[in-house]
């Protein structure tokens, strides 16, 4: 059993001045195979505001003949990842079954926002195993280990756990987490080196 999209994306088709849909990807595959949708057909992802041609939105691999029914349609900019490549919480999902998640290529990048904010970022994105970092106050290096995993796998799990309207929306919000995380850490370092180390500790001595 393959799970191609979490959250599942659906598509609208503009044909002869009318809008049809929404359709799931399996239906889109059938439309392309039987010729109902060609390269110039205008398609819009559910939740988006822009119509795009099928040629820009999809790439078709393999035979697309109606008789063979073997076309594999992949939305451009997306990849299928096995559950084992999604990190903690997904590696053992539904043992015995092959599970694949459809995620944007951007989610393969590291998340500095997740690294800086740790379990706060994880809680906001439904990545609950990130709360294990709190045990780092008692277990040496656990905080660093958890935040490092978040940095590597965070974007993929955030995409799966939340209903993003577009990749652009996710990228915009992640950039905000990164910027605020950098500012927060800069303030902490400034406090330590210029306030605590240079002012408070000398007075205490």
Helix/strand layout:
Elements (H helix, E strand, L loop, with lengths): L10 E5 L2 E6 L1 H9 L8 E4 L6 E2 H4 E4 L10 E4 L2 E5 L17 E5 L7 H6 L1 H6 L17 H20 L5 H38 L1
Antiparallel strand pairs: 1-2, 1-3, 3-4, 5-6, 7-8
Q: Can you put this structure into words, describing what you see?
A:
The protein has helices at 25-33, 54-57, 112-117, 119-124, 142-161, 167-204, and strands at residues 11-15, 18-23, 42-45, 52-53, 58-61, 72-75, 78-82, 100-104. It is an alpha+beta fold and 205 residues long. The protein has two domains: 11-76, no CATH class; 106-204, no CATH class. The strands form three sheets. It has a four-stranded antiparallel β-sheet. It has a two-stranded antiparallel ribbon with strand order 5-6. The N and C termini lie far apart (67 Å). The model is unreliable at 1-7 and 62-72 (pLDDT under 50).
Instruction: Tell me roughly what share of residues is in helical segments.
Output: 40-55%
CA(first)-CA(last) distance = 67 Å
Outline: elongated
Strand order of the largest sheet: 2-1-3-4
> In terms of per-residue confidence, which ranges show pLDDT below 50 for 5 or more consecutive residues?
1-7, 62-72
Short précis:
By secondary structure, the chain is of the alpha+beta class. The protein has six helices and eight strands. Helix content is 40%, strand content 17%.
Provide key terms for this protein.
single chain; alpha+beta
């Amino acid at each position: 059993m393959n799970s191609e999209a979490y959250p599942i994306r659906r598509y609208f088709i503009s044909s002869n001045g009318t809008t049809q849909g929404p359709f799931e990807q399996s239906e889109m595959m059938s439309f392309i195979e039987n010729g109902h949708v060609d390269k110039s057909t205008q398609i819009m992802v559910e939740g988006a505001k822009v119509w795009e041609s099928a040629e820009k939105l999809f790439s078709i691999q393999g035979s697309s003949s109606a008789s063979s029914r073997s076309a594999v349609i992949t939305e451009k900019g997306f990849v299928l990842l096995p559950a084992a490549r999604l990190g903690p919480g997904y590696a053992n999902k539904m043992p015995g079954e092959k599970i694949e998640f459809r995620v944007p290529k951007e989610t393969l990048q590291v998340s500095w926002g997740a690294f800086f904010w740790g379990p706060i970022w994880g809680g906001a994105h439904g990545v609950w195993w990130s709360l294990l970092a709190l045990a780092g106050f008692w277990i040496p290096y656990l905080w660093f280990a958890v935040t490092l995993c978040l940095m590597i796998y965070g974007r993929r799990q955030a995409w799966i756990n939340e209903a993003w309207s577009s990749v652009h929306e996710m990228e915009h919000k992640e950039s905000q987490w990164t910027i605020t995380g950098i500012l927060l850490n800069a303030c902490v370092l400034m406090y330590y080196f210029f306030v605590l180390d240079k002012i408070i500790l000398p007075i205490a001595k």
